[in-house]
Amino acid sequence: MSEVKQEYNIENAKSQMRKGFIEFPVLLIIGAKPTYAPDILKQLKNANLLVVEGTMYPLLSRLRRSGLVEYEWQESRSGPPRKMYTITIQGKEILQQLESSWSSLDTSVNTLINHYEKSN
Amino acid sequence: MKKVINITLGSIVFAIDEDAYGALASYLEQIKSNLKNSDDIKEIIDDVEIAIAEKFIARNRSEKMAVTVADVEAVIGDMGSPVEFGVGEEGESTANQTDAPKEPVIEPKKRLYRDRDNAVLAGISSGIANYFDVDPVIVRLIFVIAIFFNGIGLFAYIVLWLVVPVAETTADKYAMRGERVTLKDISERVKKNLDDIEKFDYQKTKSAWSPVRSFLDKLFRIIGTVVSFFFLLLRYVAGIALIVFGALGIAGTVSAYSVILLSEKVLFPAEVQLVFETLQGSTLGIMAMVSSFIVITIPLIILIVVGAGILVKRNYFTVQKTITLAVVWIVAAVLAGTTSALQVEQVMQQIGPVEGRFDDSSFEVEWENGSLYGNDRSGHFIYEDRRETATETIDVTKQEPQPQ
Fold first, then answer.
1. Which of A43, A57, A115, B209 has its CA 20 to 30 A from that of B46?
2. How many Cβ atoms are within 10 Å of B261's Cβ, its own excluded?
3. Interface confidence (ipTM) of the complex
4. Chain B residue closest to A61 (CA)?
5. What is the pTM of this model?
6. Residue in A closest to B12 by C-alpha
7. Mean pLDDT for each 10-residue chunk of chain B (404 residues)?
8. Which H helix or E strand runs over B12?
9. A98 to chain B nearest CA, in Å?
10. What sign does the dihedral A82-A87-A88-A94 (CA atoms) show?
11. Where are the domains of chain B?
12. Residue A59 in contact with residue B88, Cβ under 8 Å?
């Protein structure tokens, strides 16, 4: 009956936090305007939402399969053909829902953070 | 000096040196094996290839400068370890990942492959040795010794050659050894493979075996395909036959029973009619019928399920189900046996020996019996007139209640 003490892995916790909701930012980026996959990554990096690139492709494929986004092939002069992702009507609806749930989450977490900081 | 290979990634041609190719190929393979349960592996792999192509271009690799291991490693560093692909794919595994951050969740399953890298003939012994973690020499010895027992060793070897697949890809080779795959292993494995390839090539040119071996390998592969096709055919034929047989059996039983149950006004000889009526008339009779129905239909249902199982390659019978079915069947069988034995006795008593009534020529003999029965039951003698005898006995049974 010995309990193994597991070390808290802060890096892992951070990446879980990002991974958990990364679909929302990706939808926001594609929703703003049609975007190439590498540009989605660039924008995520610019917004300081660093994701491992590898997680991106399964995610995009899953979003497409659920009908939230679709893509078109675009020829490129300098490189391979690229996928231009656009958001669908269904995707926009989902995005709105995610947005409202995010803002309510945001206020609740902020309330808790304020509470925590006042008490310290 | 290194060999250079031409490959296409996202429809762009790249020159890539051997080592880098090995690393890249196994990276893509690892991703694939991490996506096993995904519906659109192809789409994701295409995306990844395109992304890698763009990265190579960004690293200024023209057709004149071959892609090197350093390039591949840098790109892999950007893309992330193959495990990441699997995690993003399934929502559930993210939760598991929190508990054990670095370890892959599922223990790799060991599979039996032929290990051609360490083969003497077809790689069967070394494959088996890998599977059971023993020295291949021991397995080879067992095969050779077994040849002297009516050639069992030879026969087994040939069957295994037909049935067991070769470990072709790196993923197969990992599965063969039951090792789990991590990114760190890949570069080591690739290096080791390249060493092996050099050694192997050298051996191959020297060995007189190799043409014979590759010929035999091809031959066995062809035979294997033919045999497995026949097995497939056999499977379908057997499965369908079982289902059809079971269905016909059930249909037959159901119609037989419905004839018995609904037969009041159906055209049957009076005696048969009487048997049916007695069956329906008493609880004992109904019990006999229900239980015997169960006894007959359970095996027929099992036939159908087994047939379906053969068709779709699934075993539908858990231990629990099998035991339940067996118990139900045994209970029904015992019930059917006892109730129908009692019922037969009752019917016999009610209508007397059936044969005598139909067959006039044997009447004289049966007459003795008839009178005996009459005596036993009610001390009532049979009339001498034949026709009246028949009607009389039936009347008796209808008017008088059952003795007992």
1. A43
2. 13
3. 0.76
4. B44
5. 0.40
6. A80
7. 81 84 86 73 85 83 74 84 62 38 50 78 82 83 82 80 75 69 56 55 54 79 84 89 91 84 65 70 78 87 87 79 88 86 74 52 44 43 46 47 49
8. strand B12-17
9. 17
10. positive
11. 4-99, 116-230, 234-399
12. yes
